[in-house]
């Protein structure tokens, strides 16, 4: 098994080189051309950029757009399918302007469009999706402004489809369209009966937040007929949830939706498009299975199931094949970005040492623990039980004022020494030790990592999503330490410890021992979907500096930094919380001046303190190491 399962989750983009560094093959058409991740990080540091940083590989983004579009086009051709594929990228998955621009540019040959789910997203797609042959799909709940902006898009001759989520939206749209004299393109979002599985199962079924029941769809059709607007109904939409892990749910949803599409067409609803929403999953944990962080199918299989599934039902029902739309977001963006940072320290229970030699009159609990350190004849299980019991008694005695601080420090040092010895003496294959897992957890180090989970990996905290976290070099050395990765927020939840070994999930991540004076860089991968944009400023840690990497077309394997987007400075983060940083700087200066006047601080020193405070306000929110 390859270390960290890199190839399993790497989707052809990530692997380990002979030199032990992560290698990236960003262009799917040139899989043999790789760039060395450590070289990328070295260049970033040489440019004076402080870690942590988000690295975006724009060529990966382009590759994913091409793969999805070409897979659909090829399957459609192989299947002699009658419609076309006209996909859209849902910008909520990553609204960064540079990401959206790259996707639009890479998708132009395929007329790949955009999807918006809110008013501000609609404003962005109006400005960025100018291709009149590409679709703009408008989801989410809508007010009059939302609908008016959508009609503006129609005036600009864009294929803007307003997807109706609720009957009342149509009641609002009809008079508005009449008043403005604009003919809308209308989509109907169906509330699906199929129950999907995984973290987003709530997106389908009777209690789903979005979509129209069959009854509501029929009522809408009646209303459209009455208003002489049935010809505006162009698209049938569904979305049964993100990160669909089981292909059987995709197949089920496709048959349900294709049947509904066919029945509606038979009722003379002139639908031209079937929109299958998002859901195409990512193999975050590399298990290719139905865990919440994986998927049991490939993109080829997903696309084939959609194309052939729709075709079969339409042929049976004798209706034309619709054009196919998908709204894959995660699958387009997840691979292209990662967070690179450094380990800044180690928190270890066995780390602190104290002189444990015997002293006259020491408490019996201390002597007992000392005897245990040399009790070689004792069974490890018994030794473990005794040590735990002495430690508990010592704690009780300390609370009653019986044990001194010196005695507690001795006891503690010996306790951890005993646990470490027990652990190293256990032969896992021949010996059953009931608390082995507990012991390993207690002894595991915590690597302190210069980032905030709440800013950079929100889903790991919020919904237990697994993201690969891997050192970017030394991968030709076996990692010796098992640890959890803790972030620099003041929150015990700021922790990553899930690791997938083959198909097993373990509670500690293997890492290498840290070497003095040497940086240990780790990468958190597959963060390009949702993580990039959903993070918050817990503890006032701001957005990370971003580095955009492109490959040289004419020099295979070479890369360049195309753009650096600075991270949020401390003053900007403070300002979003309503602080006036000019006022803060003035107040601190006033306090310093007061101490200067009193003679507590020398005038020259006072100036230095003032400058220093201002420099920190303009600086990064993360640790400078
Ligand atoms: N379309 C709609 C309506 C969604 O709600 C979502 C996300 O849940 C998506 C598309 C994107 O889904 P995914 O990122 O799984 O492709």
TrEMBL record:
Family: Belongs to the Orn/Lys/Arg decarboxylase class-II family. SpeA subfamily.
Residue positions where N6-(pyridoxal phosphate)lysine is found in the record: 92
Co-factor(s): pyridoxal 5'-phosphate; Mg(2+)
Protein task: Catalyzes the biosynthesis of agmatine from arginine.
Classification via PROSITE patterns: ODR_DC_2_1
Protein's name in the database: Arginine decarboxylase
Residue ranges occupied by any Arginine decarboxylase helical bundle domain in the UniProt entry: 362-440
One of the Pfam families matching this protein, by short name: Arg_decarbox_C
Record-linked Gene3D superfamilies: 1.20.58.930, Alanine racemase, Lyase, Ornithine Decarboxylase, Chain A, domain 1
The organism of origin for this protein: Pseudidiomarina aestuarii
Active site: 490 (proton donor)
């Amino acid at each position: 098994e390859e270390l960290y399962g890199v190839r399993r989750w790497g989707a052809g983009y990530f692997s380990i080189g002979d030199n032990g560094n992560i290698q990236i093959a960003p262009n799917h058409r040139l899989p043999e051309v790789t760039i060395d991740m450590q070289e990328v990080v070295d260049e970033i540091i040489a440019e004076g950029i402080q870690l942590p940083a988000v690295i975006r590989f724009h060529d990966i983004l382009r590759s994913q757009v091409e793969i999805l579009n070409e897979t659909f086009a090829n399957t459609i051709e192989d299947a002699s399918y009658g419609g076309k594929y006209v996909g859209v990228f849902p910008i909520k998955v990553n609204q960064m302007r540079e990401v959206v621009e790259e996707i639009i540019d890479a998708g132009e040959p395929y007329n790949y469009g955009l999807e918006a789910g809110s008013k501000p997203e609609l404003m962005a797609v109006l400005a960025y999706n100018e291709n009149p042959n590409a679709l703009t799909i408008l989801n989410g709940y809508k007010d009059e402004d939302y609908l008016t902006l959508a009609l503006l898009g129609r005036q600009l001759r864009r294929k803007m489809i307003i997807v109706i989520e609720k009957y009342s939206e149509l009641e609002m749209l009809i008079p508005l369209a009449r008043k403005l004299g604009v003919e809308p393109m209308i989509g109907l979002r169906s509330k699906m009966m199929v129950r999907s599985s995984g973290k987003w199962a709530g997106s389908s079924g009777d209690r789903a937040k979005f979509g129209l029941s069959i009854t509501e769809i029929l009522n809408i059709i009646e209303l459209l007929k009455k208003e002489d607007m049935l010809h505006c109904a162009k698209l049938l939409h569904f979305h049964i949830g993100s990160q669909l892990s089981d292909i059987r749910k995709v197949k089920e949803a496709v048959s349900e939706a294709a049947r509904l599409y066919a029945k509606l067409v038979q009722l003379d609803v002139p639908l031209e498009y079937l929109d299958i929403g998002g859901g195409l999953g990512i193999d975050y944990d590399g298990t290719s299975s139905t865990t919440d962080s994986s998927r049991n199918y490939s993109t080829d299989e997903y696309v084939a199931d959609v194309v052939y599934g729709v075709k079969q039902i339409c042929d049976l029902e004798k209706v034309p094949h619709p054009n196919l739309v998908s709204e894959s977001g995660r699958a387009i963006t997840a691979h292209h970005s990662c967070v690179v940072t450094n380990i800044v320290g180690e928190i270890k229970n066995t780390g602190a040492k104290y002189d444990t030699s015997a002293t006259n009159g020491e408490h019996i609990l201390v002597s007992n623990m000392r005897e245990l350190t040399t009790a070689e004849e004792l069974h490890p299980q018994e030794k473990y039980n005794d040590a735990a019991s002495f430690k508990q008694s010592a704690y009780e005695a300390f609370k009653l004022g019986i044990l001194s601080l010196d005695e507690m420090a001795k006891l503690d040092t010996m306790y951890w020494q005993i646990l470490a010895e027990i652990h190293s003496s256990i032969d896992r294959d021949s010996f059953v030790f009931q608390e082995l897992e507990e012991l390993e957890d207690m002894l595991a180090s915590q690597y302190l990592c210069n980032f905030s989970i709440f800013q950079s990996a929100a889903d790991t905290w919020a919904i237990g999503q697994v993201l690969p976290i891997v050192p970017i070099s030394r991968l030709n050395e076996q990692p010796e330490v098992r640890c959890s990765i803790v972030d620099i927020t003041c929150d015990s939840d700021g922790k990553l410890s899930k690791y997938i070994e083959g198909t097993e999930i373990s509670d500690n991540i293997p890492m290498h021992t840290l070497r003095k004076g040497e940086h240990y860089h780790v990468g958190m991968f597959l963060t390009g979907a949702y993580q990039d944009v959903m993070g918050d400023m817990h503890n006032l840690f701001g957005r990370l500096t971003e580095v955009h990497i492109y490959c040289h077309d004419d020099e295979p394997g070479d890369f360049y930094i195309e753009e650096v987007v600075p991270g949020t400075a401390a003053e900007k983060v403070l300002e979003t919380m309503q602080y006036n940083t000019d006022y803060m700087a003035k107040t601190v200066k006033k306090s310093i001046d007061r101490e200067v006047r009193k003679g507590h601080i020398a005038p020259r020193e006072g100036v230095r303190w003032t400058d220093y405070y201002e420099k920190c306000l303009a600086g990064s929110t993360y640790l400078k190491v």
